[in-house]
Amino acid sequence: MSEPWTGGSFGERARCVLADNADMMTLDGTNTWVLREPGARRSVVIDPGPSIPAHLDAIAEAAGEVGVVLLTHHHHDHAEAAQEFAERMGCGVRALDPELRLGSEGLGDGDVVEIDGLEIRVVGTPGHTADSLSFHVPAEGAVLTGDTVLGRGTTVVAHPDGQLGAYLDSLDRLHALASSQDVSWIWPGHGPVIADALGALDFYRAHRRDRLGQVEAALASLKDSPHPEGIAVDELPRRVVEIVYTDVDPVLWGAAELSVRAQLAYLQGRSS
Length: 272
Description:
single chain; alpha/beta; elongated
């Protein structure tokens, strides 16, 4: 059994404030990251998370004055309280999705956010969702990955918004960062920090390749063993889940089905 994750301070610039919203999908809860250059006046808050008053109070206490709120993606467990918290702290919200912004500034791949000497480089990492971003903190050799890479287990490619081809490309991009020794640490959106970024990304890429092979094998077995009633198109993903995801708690099969739908769409696009 893994040790419970409670957040804490990391490096010279980061504090993780853990939200009290643990469940099967959020692991121990949402990690809200507070970043501040040593000796600086203002902080950057990444993913304020759910609208839980005690959590927002804890972020405010850890952050002090806030220069900006950044979002990794639009899912409620990361973004629900963003505008509420930013209004409370008197700052803006920057996100790829215009609907999530507070103020005129957006956020996209290649942007550099600088607050009181702290530099954060934005890396476009779509796949889990279309608007997923990661944040590279060069001074710490760390990348904040939101839900693109988790501290435990693997993430869901949330079809149809999420796309497997884009996700594989994003893993390659993060892997290149880690291979160049610019990134040693992964600070994820859920679960504990990862000290071996390259190893984690090797595992993630291998896992996706293995799952894709298992899905292809499951499709072949279903075709080789036709059912008299046939398999409806909408039923096929669940049938694949029942074959491939026997190692996953059935409570999570709904999420697994989203990933299978993304895998089937990817395979269809590759064959066309």
